[in-house]
């Protein structure tokens, strides 16, 4: 007989015996489970009956108190309904007696309940007779009777619960004995099979086990592990391949480790060499690295700052919220430069830093960290302040002589218009136009300087947008009709009023609409609209003009900036800068979305009235 057939025969007999034993054990366990389940189910019915009786006696007690106190005229009706439920539950308990001591508890329970009904009857009779001591009689007779009935119900429940626990324990012990006996018989049946297969299985399993242990150690980083070769069979070839793999993995690990250490040192050197304060955060805004400039800025030790939340170092909630917004917001509006200025007060000076947050993304696009850079702009802030002061002083000083020049040119025009030659009259008109343009420029410079310095006070009121839009559109009605331009206004009904200075917002809208009309062709389209976005109202001024190239989007709000190739209608280049300052004074933001050849959309935000003042729109 072949070895394969002998092995099959030996294993077949052993498994047949084992199958018989298992079938017998399963049958016994199923029978035991059914019996235990029946016992537990019957006891559970008694527990449910006890719970229902407890609830019924409680509601009867409550109805009795309300009846004697006169709180409910239907209390006795409720009392009788609960009495019926109590007797129904008591009958269920009597029909389900499974414990020897349960009969005595039920008899005592019934007697106590009948006594309770008797005491309630006497109490009701006293109350009907108008006796004044019904409350004291309730406390002395009815209440103790309620407690005795409740205690009897609890005894019934406890008795069944203890019996259930005891039955469960007994069933568990019986099941344990059945299992052990089954295992014993099964072991006897398996002896022949185990003895027959011991030699063969040992030869096969031992090298596989060693390979498994070696693989586990290899995954833990022990690349020096090796396994012996067991000849030229499949397992021996597998062992040889494993040894070659472990050797190559060890060499690769050492090479990568050296490379990582070199890159880490290089990164640390680059960070130290950067003069701007730099902080590297992980995805949970904890500090992973920082350079000496950042440590000096926040006066912390670099080693102590690692793994701490960035708020513990910067201690500025507004800065942290701005960093989160800047690192997570991929669409407009972007965080404005003015909102990213961080002031640090020292003993005798104030330093200003412009911070910038950029997310670090993995190959799949998920954010794995943030790089936060603080650039010292104190010198630029001082220069900007000095420039603004100079512009304001110069504009103020130029306004008076310009007014005088304008008046002089006006007088000359009135006296000499019909006497001077045409070429000289043209020079006079050109001078008047230049003076008017200079006065407009000086006025815009003064307004912009006041806005930047906060010297223009805003009168915040509740502003309904549609009448304001219509008033601004009416200003341009003549120009629109002359050029056949479609100028529309759209404000949905769900858009609430805003909290704003109506004159200043009208100024912003006029600047934006005027700017759009300069760039749109005759017969084109300009639209003014508004929409609700959370607690803010977004106001849009859109046109289908030539558009603005993307490289100019960030500069269109700068002072004196005009897009190259624009219409060049003689503007001062300050309209958008003034609009930006007005919107900022309203705590809003302004930005532009534009595609060359398709038009532009200028958007600014205003706070909704009810979100700021708490009043209804």
Helix content: 55-70%
Give the number of helices: 16
Low-confidence stretches: 611-617
CATH topology of the largest domain: Four Helix Bundle (Hemerythrin (Met), subunit A)
Share of residues in strands? 5-15%
Strand order within the widest beta sheet = 2-1-5-4-3
Mean pLDDT score: 76
| Helix and strand element order | HHHHHEEHHHHEEEHHEHHEEHEEHEEH
Structural class call reads alpha+beta
Gross morphology is: flat
Number of domains: 4
Describe what this molecule looks like in 3D.
The protein is of the alpha+beta class. It has four domains: 3-197, Up-down Bundle (Four Helix Bundle (Hemerythrin (Met), subunit A)); 274-376, PAS domain (Beta-Lactamase, 2-Layer Sandwich); 383-453, Helix Hairpins (Orthogonal Bundle); 461-613, Heat Shock Protein 90 (2-Layer Sandwich), CATH 3.30.565.10. The chain contains 16 helices and twelve strands. The strands form three sheets. Strands 2-1-5-4-3 form a five-stranded antiparallel β-sheet. A five-stranded mixed β-sheet has the order 7-9-10-12-11. Strands 6-8 form a two-stranded antiparallel ribbon. Helix 1 (3-69) packs antiparallel against helix 4 (134-219) and helix 10 packs antiparallel against helix 11 (422-453). The longest helix has 86 residues, at 134-219. The N and C termini lie far apart (99 Å). The model is unreliable at 611-617 (pLDDT under 50).
């Amino acid at each position: 007989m072949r070895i394969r057939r002998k092995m099959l025969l030996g294993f077949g007999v052993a498994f047949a015996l084992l199958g018989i034993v298992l079938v017998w054990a399963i049958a016994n366990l199923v029978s035991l489970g059914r019996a235990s389940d029946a016992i537990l189910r019957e006891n559970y019915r008694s527990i449910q009956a006890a719970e229902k009786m407890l609830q019924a006696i409680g509601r009867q007690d409550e109805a009795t108190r309300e009846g004697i106190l006169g709180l409910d005229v239907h209390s006795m009706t409720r009392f009788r309904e609960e009495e019926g439920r109590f007797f129904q539950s008591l009958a269920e308990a009597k029909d389900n007696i499974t414990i020897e001591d349960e009969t005595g508890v039920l008899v005592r329970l019934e007697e106590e309940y009948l006594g309770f009904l008797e005491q309630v009857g006497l109490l009701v009779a006293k109350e009907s007779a108008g006796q004044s001591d019904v409350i004291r009689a309730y406390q002395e007779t009815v209440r103790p009777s309620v407690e005795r009935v409740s205690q009897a119900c609890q005894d019934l429940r406890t008795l069944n619960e203890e019996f259930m626990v005891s039955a469960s324990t007994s069933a568990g012990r019986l099941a344990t004995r059945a299992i052990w006996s089954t295992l014993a018989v099964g072991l006897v049946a398996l002896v022949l099979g185990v003895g027959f297969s011991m030699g063969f299985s040992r030869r096969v399993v031992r090298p596989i086990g060693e390979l498994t242990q070696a693989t586990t150690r290899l995954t833990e980083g022990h690349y020096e592990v090796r396994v012996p070769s067991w000849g030229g069979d499949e397992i021996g070839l597998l062992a040889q391949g494993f040894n070659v793999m472990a050797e190559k993995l060890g060499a690769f690990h050492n090479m990568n480790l050296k490379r990582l250490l070199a890159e880490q040192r290089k990164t640390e050197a680059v960070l130290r060499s950067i003069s701007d304060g730099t902080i590297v955060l992980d995805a949970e805004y904890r500090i992973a690295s920082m350079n000496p400039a950042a440590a000096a800025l926040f006066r912390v030790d670099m080693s102590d700052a690692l793994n701490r939340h960035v708020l513990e170092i910067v201690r500025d909630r507004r800065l942290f919220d701005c960093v989160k917004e800047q690192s997570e917001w991929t669409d407009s509006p972007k965080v404005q430069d003015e909102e990213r200025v961080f002031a640090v007060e020292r003993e005798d000076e104030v330093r200003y830093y412009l911070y910038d947050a950029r997310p670090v993304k993995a190959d799949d696009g998920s954010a794995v960290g943030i790089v936060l850079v603080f650039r010292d702009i104190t010198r630029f802030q001082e220069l900007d302040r000095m420039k603004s002061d100079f512009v304001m002083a110069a504009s103020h000083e130029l306004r008076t002589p310009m007014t005088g020049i304008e008046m002089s040119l006006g007088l000359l025009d009135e006296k000499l218009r019909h006497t001077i030659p045409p070429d000289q009259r043209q020079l006079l008109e050109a001078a008047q136009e230049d003076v008017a343009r200079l006065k407009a420029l000086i006025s815009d410079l003064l307004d912009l300087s006041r806005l930047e310095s906060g010297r223009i006070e805003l009168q915040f009121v509740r502003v309904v947008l549609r009448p304001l839009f219509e008033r601004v559109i009416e200003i341009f009605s003549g120009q629109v009709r002359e050029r056949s331009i479609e100028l529309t206004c759209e404000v949905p009904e769900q858009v609430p009023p805003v909290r704003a200075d109506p004159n200043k917002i009208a100024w912003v809208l006029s600047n934006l609409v005027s700017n759009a009309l300069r760039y749109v062709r005759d017969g084109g389209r300009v639209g003014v609209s508004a929409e609700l976005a959370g607690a803010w109202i977004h106001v849009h001024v859109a046109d289908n003009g030539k558009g603005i190239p993307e490289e100019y989007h960030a500069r269109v709000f700068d002072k004196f900036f005009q897009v190259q190739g624009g219409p060049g209608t003689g503007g001062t280049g300050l309209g958008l800068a003034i609009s930006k300052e007005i919107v900022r004074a309203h705590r809003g933001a302004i930005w532009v979305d534009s595609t060359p050849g398709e038009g532009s959309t200028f958007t600014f935000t205003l706070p909704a009235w009810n979100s700021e003042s708490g009043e209804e729109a």
